[in-house]
Design a protein that fits this description.
Radius of gyration: 22 Å
Largest sheet: 5 strands, parallel
Structural class: alpha/beta
Number of helices: 13
Order of helices and strands: EHEHEEHEHEEEHHEHEHHEHHHH
Helix content: 40-55%
Strand order of the largest sheet: 2-5-8-1-9
Strand content: 5-15%
CATH superfamily of the largest domain: P-loop containing nucleotide triphosphate hydrolases
Number of domains: 3
CATH architecture of the largest domain: 3-Layer(aba) Sandwich
Oligomer: single chain
């Protein structure tokens, strides 16, 4: 199965729904982002390794295919997988066995593979950057996930779903989302799709003190940024502070979040590329992504 859609459209949610509604429900669901690992590390993550296979391999380690045995493995950003790794994955799909790095014997696995990407794999096949045989192997059942702006009728349902998830977790008795907030959500184009909506609701829940959630759509500039821009404070040598003051931490956080989201959009959701664009180490980038729940 191959799920295609823009970054943040909820491809993993679709994969989890497929898993939950199948006979494999109750078995493991394992998710791995193929763009988040260098090639050598991705191989050990997927297939595991044997003790002594390389420096630091002090004991055997199960790969994610073995962990997911009987269930489903979700390979996100499969387009970022190298051609060499594509060959190894194709072999697993054909033989239904894996060989850990440093191992000499095959381990049988019974795993449903669901792949996802935001790129055009058919075009990549033509460009010889994605194997044609693997493409046809994983795309037997193709699923297209539309962007959030193309399914505005889902926005209230998704927003309330996230409210029910995050309000109890935060110990908040928030009963509903205000009508004004829902209207603002529907009017916004959500370039970050479902992931951006989820982040907006989670942040709103954390700040709300009433029983009705009032939160602005990301397109509505924060008061801090609007005030700073009105004072000519953006990109100047001398930053002026508005007369009524400014929440500096919120302002800096807003800028950081915007830069991260922009880099992720421009990189097609590939985190290693986004980190390079921002001149950050991958570790620092991952820390910020986790901090802002992107």
């Amino acid at each position: 199965m191959l799920i295609h859609g823009e970054s943040g459209t909820g491809k993993e949610l679709v994969a989890r729904a497929v898993h939950t509604c199948s006979q494999r429900d109750g078995q493991p669901f394992v998710s791995v982002n193929c763009g988040a690992f260098p090639e050598t590390l991705l191989e050990t993550e997927l297939f595991g390794y044997m003790k002594g296979a390389f420096t630091g391999a002090n004991q055997n380690k199960q790969g994610l295919f073995e962990v997911a045995n009987g269930g489903t493995i979700f390979l996100d950003e499969i387009a970022e997988m190298s051609l060499a790794m594509q060959v190894k994955l194709l072999r697993v799909l054909q033989e239904r066995t894996i060989r850990p790095v440093g191992g000499t014997s095959e381990i049988p696995v019974d795993v449903r593979v669901i792949a996802a990407t935001n790129r055009d794999l058919q075009e990549m096949v033509q460009e010889k950057t994605f194997r044609e045989d693997l493409y046809y192997r994983i795309s037997v059942i193709p699923i297209e996930v539309p962007s959030l702006r193309a399914r505005q009728e889902d926005i209230p349902l998704l927003a309330n779903h996230f409210l029910k998830r995050y309000a109890p977790a935060a110990g908040k008795n928030i009963l509903r989302i205000s009508d004004d907030s829902i209207e603002a959500f529907i009017a916004y184009d959500w370039p970050g799709n479902v992931r951006q909506l989820e982040n907006t609701i989670e942040r709103g829940v954390a700040m709300e003190t009433q029983e009705v959630l009032n939160v602005s759509a990301p397109g509505e500039r924060s008061k801090a940024r609007a005030a700073a821009e009105a004072m000519g404070a953006v990109q100047t040598d001398s930053v002026a502070v508005p007369a009524d003051g400014i929440d500096m931490e919120a302002y800096v956080a807003d800028l950081e979040r915007s830069m991260l989201q922009s880099a992720l959009r421009q990189s097609g959701g590939v985190q290693t590329r986004a980190a390079e664009m921002l001149k950050l180490s991958y570790r620092s980038f991952r820390h910020l992504v986790k901090k802002y729940n992107l």
